Amino acid sequence: MKAIYRTHRMTDAPLSKQEIFERTHQRHHRMVAFIRLLILILFLSLWEFSAQMGYIDSFFFSSPSQVALCFAGMIKDGTFFINTGITLLETIASFLLVFVIGMLFATLLWYSDKCAEILEPYLVILNSLPKSALAPLFIVWLGTGINTIIVAGISVAIFGSIINLYTGFRQIDEEKIKLIYTLGGRKQTAFLKVVLPGSIPTILSNMKVNIGLALVGVIIGEFLAARRGLGYLIIYGSQVFKWWAGMIEMSIRIYPYK
Amino acid sequence: MTQPILELNDICYSYHSLKGETDALSHISFQVKKGEFLAIVGPSGCGKSTLLSIISGLIVPEGGEIRFPQNNEEGGNMQSQAKCSPRIGYMLQHDHLLEWRTIYKNIILGLEINHQVTPEKTARAIELLKDYGLYKFKDKKPGELSGGMKQRAALIRTLVLDPEILLLDEPFSALDYQTRLSVSSDICSIIRSAKKTAILVTHDLSEAISLADRILVLSKRPATIKCDIPIHLTVTGTSPLASRNAPEYQGYFNQLWKEISDESHIPNPSDDGCPAK
After folding, report:
1. Using a CB-CB distance cutoff of 8 angstroms, which residues of chain A are in contact with residue B109?
2. DSSP 3-state of B122
């Protein structure tokens, strides 16, 4: 892109309206990226500066250089990759289970209005439970293995997912379903030909939310039950006041889902 | 006299809600002959659409029976799977083309549902697309087509299933006036040339007169048949535009208007000028 810009300058060819638009557009994006980076650098330097000058106690607040050193150490001895891998695995497992269970229940509810009517208050109540408070119970029921952590991941996302998918299914135009009947179809035809393809945007946005929630659930599970994983690293780090390292790892992990 | 293709005997239907019972149709009986184009008009909310849903088998009447004498087939009392009889094509008010399918895929939707995607049927679909000037749009999504084109596509979707009776539930009401005239003239010529039997529900009297062979006027709820008017226009050709210029047109219009306005207490047209022709 820069090359195009320069060629134009050299040949002195007049810019077309489209080129001017494209250039303004690029300039806007460069500006946004630059200011974002600037804010990060300012924050980190202020933090480092305050720690160095003793304005804040680096024992409690740490400092960017200490975090970087600790992080480098974790990468060197491989603990970072092992723990990230485990958390990733657990998150993917919970996410897939949430997707499958959520779709099954939402389909069932769509199929049977009676079922939906009966279960609706339970779903609302279960969805509003503070799931992190349930994590100790999962440990009692399932021990401290990977199962507990996956169940913790599922518990955070599943009820919201069912409600969301079911609402999405219900928003499909009734007349489109009637159309399927007029063409000789049955309820399952209407589901496969209209409801499911029409709900793809809902399903995708639901998946995006779920992967984030599954990660949160898994980290909560690891806080309490694990001896490996990022949640464990955060807890361990906070106990030895390396919690900043843990938080940064978590931001790195969460960032792609934003 | 040709044998009727469809026979309704003493059809009754009412809607139930906690607020009580609303009678929609009361003792409706009529016959439709093969190849006939019947229009049903009536005050709004009188149960015209309910009547079509009953004929199509989507809802089961509370009383009476529907017969298809030529097929010896019981239509109305099929066990209620809310399923349309394959002999009947039902065209709804809006096109309801599925926006994630191309026009061609939309048109063969009915074939897919009935497991009839055979080379002959798809060839027929292509032929219909060509006839109605939609062939070059066959790989486009419905969003890229105009309202009239979409309604034509919806008609083709109904026609590829080769129904014997076409039910048209105000299929032109969502179109602008100009498109409406051209689409209704298309649909009329398709139905006439294929010798299909059609039942058109409409609130547009001029549309009913120009398209139909016979008009049933329904009373307001609970609907009964108020009168049954055969239409004979002395005009050559079947184009609905030509029909509107027939000498009898205005007479039929005034007669229908009188029947309808008696029902819904609309002021007489002579009070506020003649309605749109």
Report:
1. 183, 193
2. helix
Report, at the CATH architecture level, how domain A73-257 is classified.
Answer: Orthogonal Bundle (1.10)
Does any domain span residue B136?
no
**What is the total count of domains within chain B?**
1
Domain at B241, CATH number: 3.40.50.300
Question: For the complex shown, is ipTM > 0.85?
Answer: no
Interface mutation target, options A111, A172, A179, chain B, most CBs of B under 10 Å:
A179
pLDDT tens-digit profile of A176-223?
A: 999 998 888 888 999 999 999 999 999 999 999 999 999 988 888 888
**Pairing assessment for the beta strands B225-230 and B214-218 based on DSSP bridges:** antiparallel
The yes-or-no verdict on residue B61 having pLDDT over 60 is: yes
- The whole-angstrom separation of Cα A182 and Cα B185 is 23
Kindly state whether residue B170 falls inside one of the protein's structural domains. Answer: yes
Closest residue, chain A, to B107 (C-alpha): A183
Strands B37-41 and B214-218: parallel
Give dist(CA B12, CA B51) in Å, integer: 9
Mean of pLDDT over chain B: 79
Q: Which of B78, B96, B164 to mutate to test the interface with A (most CBs of A within 10 A)?
A: B96
